[in-house]
Amino acid sequence: MFLARGNNEAYPGRQGALVEATCDGLASCGYENLYYSALYTDLSCQTTYDGAIAGHTQMAAYAALCPHSKLILAGYSQGGQIAGDILGGGGGYSFNGCYQPETPPLDRTTSPGNQIAAVIIFGDTRHTANQPYNYGNGSNLNGWFPRPASQLAALEAWTNITRDWCVSTDPICAANQTFSEITTHLGYYNVYSDAAASWLKSIASLTGTSSFSTAVPTSLSGTIQNYATVPTATPSGTVTLDTTWTSTTSITPCTALSYPTPSFTSEPANATELANMSTTTALVPLSASSAVFPITTSSAASGSAGASSSGTAKGSSSSASSGGVSNVSRSTSGIFGALVLIGSAILF
Q: Which residues form a coiled coil (predicted)?
């Protein structure tokens, strides 16, 4: 499971509950955090851009190492936007009128896209009304920044394995409603983790084979900020491009596989890696992807975590700085300066 966390969350964020519910009963299951800053005071379109690149590079590296694995992409809030950007392509205006540079959609027919078995998103900032993969009573509502037609067309390719979950009282994925409650946005995983896990296991054809249980610590590496002590306005600025990340295309694509019937027993080395996720620090410095890390902003606090063979997740942390070398000047006119809603919109 690749997790894209929400704004101002430590790794792995609220989605830890979803990992627990999904991995219980599965002897070979774990998660990897996507590397990007989620600090509120970092430029949101920068960190979202970074997260989209992280998704492409990290999943490609993992798929190359473990070609018989099934991948699940999960995103919450800002991380929901990142998950959508990975699959459908990213780019466009965001908070405070900041422009996020375009990134391409993931190809479902080649690695790592052909190993993605399920996608689940909650509380997406770019939730777009009436899409075929929408789920929940907020399906007919727009978030703060609905997607353009080109991105929606690319996302449709993932419809049969995707749920974009939105509740109508969530002020982030269902913006500008007469009545909303921030507790809806913050409480998805308290309410829906079991139902979401059941769907993930069904759609990805995951069958429990043991009494193996997973326990994910509620707080791992990653820095969060106290909203009472930080500026109340979302930051403005321009995005620093990472000009090296496309080098990941040098990874030789895995042979297309029929992921409903992977064989871990025929790949002992892969099975060992999957069962001992705490050792997956080796995944990042692969020759094809090492050049693109670190990719987050200089103030980022990054970390990685995984489930060990005993079922207890363990985490380690590292700092990261931008790998970009050029700047893109975009509008900073503060189009959405009035967007800040104390206690709600800052939690995207």
A: none
Which CATH architecture is the domain 2-339 placed in?
A: 3-Layer(aba) Sandwich (3.40)
Per residue in 17-27, pLDDT tens? 999 999 988 88
What residues does each domain of the chain span? 2-339
The answer to whether the pTM exceeds 0.85 is no
**Both tokens of residue 271?**
């099975």
